[in-house]
Amino acid sequence: MIPMTLEEIARVVGASLHDVRDARALVTAPAAVDSREVVPGGLFAATAGARVDGHDYAAAAVAGGAVAVLAARPVGVPALVVGDVQIALGLLARHVLGHISPVVIGVTGSVGKTTTKDLLAQVLERQAATIATDRSFNNELGLPLTVLRADAATRYLVLEMGAGRKGDLRYLTGLAPPQVGLVLNVGTAHVERMGGGLADVAEAKGELVEAVAADGFALLNADDPYVMGMAGRTRARILLYGRSGKAAVRAEDVRMDGRARAAFELVTPSGRAPVELDLIGEHQVSNALAAAAVATALGLGVAEIADGLNAARRRSTGRLEIVERSDGITIVNDAYNANPESMRAGLRAAKALAGARRTVAVLGAMGQQAEASRARHAEIGRLVADLRFDVLIAVGAGDPLAMAQAAQSSDQGVAVHTVEDVTGAIRLATALLEPGDVVLVKASSEIGLSACARALAGA
Fold it and tell me: Is 112 among the annotated ligand-binding positions?
């Protein structure tokens, strides 16, 4: 955060000052929407959620070091009162970005955004000061919070940009216009909100490359026809990446080791170099290529890119996070979120990791799948059977039952169980697990199966 006085911030966001003794008090640290994450010199943004109202924590935030609270009403402590806290955060982020000069990199896609962002950040921060989205703070609140962590020393600003509806990316890119726009893929995540079809998802995701200026770069996945269809929607220079031979940044000689980690020869316009990823799953090759494409567009050489990818480690929890128990049981926590594409990738990664070991899938619902939801869950059930998982525990009523029924009817020998909720999943999985098992836990975040993964990992 660049230092700003409270009166300067008030002018930028159109706020009135309440309970402020010194309007020239400086905010020198980033903003936070969680009072527990406030740092001295920062700003606390009091947002009202479905279960918690940040205004109730204003005093605690100031006691924890916040200079003031960005709020929708007076809160009895120093506050900048605005009509809409979310909009005010965006205005403040846009102002700060206008006073510093990082290269803004926007990353979007239906799956893989967070992992790709984490890989890219680890490549770039070896070269210069880099700020990247924390966790998956990729929406209209998270993006401003990321921007407000940047300062004059920041060279690269890596912004994960999520889109739940058409127009979301147009709003986010309006706050932080990207010099580089990266589109990973088009899948069924949020398809219900976007219109119901993949073409609707592509229309929404393509808003990112529309926002890139003519002297910037649009990085498109050559392996995804919907992403390739965005080429006509951008004025920017186009750089293709993927496993296709037509990609300028591509992977050759892809292979997997005994721990389900991919290795390949990275090919870029500057040459070739070997890459050995520390992340499990063959789908990580695409994520690594996407990061490599951004780095290539920014002028990094192939050796620098490969070194960064080889040194990169998993940073975000709940995404193919592996915990090895003392009894030889391996928990694969992929419960941060789920859609058909990520569910398939997670199942294949866990099966590859297991090799000849016994495999257990604890799976819950995939949200926002529109009218095709039941059929898509059934497809996942059939895949569980086709991959020869030994046990399936389907968690919840409705669509997970379709998953269970499809796995059962495939007659591939999978032992199928159904439970009502997360508590039931923990209880049953704990009873069924045997030493040496590999257990995948996955569902959309609202199901709460991350609690099951943590319980099993700590057992």
Answer: yes
